[in-house]
Design a protein that fits this description.
Number of strands of chain B: 11
Strand content of chain A: over 45%
Oligomer: heterodimer
Shape of chain B: globular
Number of helices of chain A: 0
Largest sheet of chain B: 7 strands, mixed
Radius of gyration of chain B: 13 Å
Largest sheet of chain A: 6 strands, mixed
Order of helices and strands of chain A: EEEEEEEEEEE
Number of strands of chain A: 11
Structural class of chain A: mainly beta
Structural class of chain B: mainly beta
């Protein structure tokens, strides 16, 4: 069964700290993996997208990694800001085209 | 970058009302549009996929007569929730892709539907 699991479910950190969110998937065949940020009451916004051959990709303070062998991905946020408070969703694209959504990690950054 | 606009952002209406939600691709032609539903603290659930000029493909368990989808042009898809009831209250999100059959890159900002 195609599944995407994320951990932790929720996370609270202080402003300026780093954090890492995890994503494990059992999706086959694999096309690509995306990380989205979703602010409360808004649609998801793409942060990164990685294909099978890519191990890491950065977008500003966001760095995603992908280990296709272990089927794991992580999203590292550096020097967190209050505006980073949101849900972060890991989405794996399977072939034929189908998106498998994780349940997300709810991040709260406090001053 | 590519932008998907969704309207309205929020709707509050009485039970039995039909509600139409619009999804527009602002700077690209969207051959495929997707409609999702999201309950609180849950992830997005795909409701249906619509390709311009053809009938929408609904996911299992989604009533096509309840959720009418029209994708009449390459920049506009509409979702009509017919005879809405309180259990239809949810966050509805559309997304659009410029390439037929390929997965969406761009999501709208969602429509919060509240049925009283």
């Amino acid at each position: 069964k195609n599944q995407v699991e994320q951990s932790p479910q929720s996370l609270i950190i202080l402003e300026g700290k780093n954090c890492t969110l995890q994503c494990n998937y059992t999706v086959s065949p694999f096309s690509n993996l995306r990380w989205y940020k979703q602010d409360t009451g808004r649609g998801p916004v793409s942060l990164t997208i990685m294909t099978f051959s890519e191990n890491t990709k950065s977008n500003g303070r966001y760095t995603a990694t992908l280990d296709a062998d272990t089927k794991q991905s992580s999203l590292h946020i550096t020097a967190s800001q209050l505006s980073d408070s949101a849900s972060y969703i890991c989405v794996v694209s399977a072939n034929p085209d189908k998106l498998i959504f994780g349940t997300g990690t709810r991040l709260q950054v406090f001053p | 970058g590519a932008v998907v606009s969704q309207h309205p952002s929020r709707v509050i209406c009485k039970s039995g009302t039909s509600v139409k939600i619009e999804c527009r691709s602002l700077d690209f032609q969207a051959t495929t549009m997707f409609w999702y539903r999201q309950f609180p603290k849950q992830s997005l659930m795909l409701m249906a996929t619509s390709n311009e000029g053809s009938k929408a493909t609904y996911e299992q368990g989604v009533e096509k007569d309840k959720f009418l989808i029209n994708h009449a042009s390459l920049t506009l898809s509409t979702l009509t929730v017919t005879s809405a009831h309180p259990e239809d209250s949810s966050f509805y999100i559309c997304s659009a892709s410029a390439r037929q059959g390929h997965q969406p890159q761009h999501f709208g900002d969602g429509t919060r539907l509240s049925i009283l």
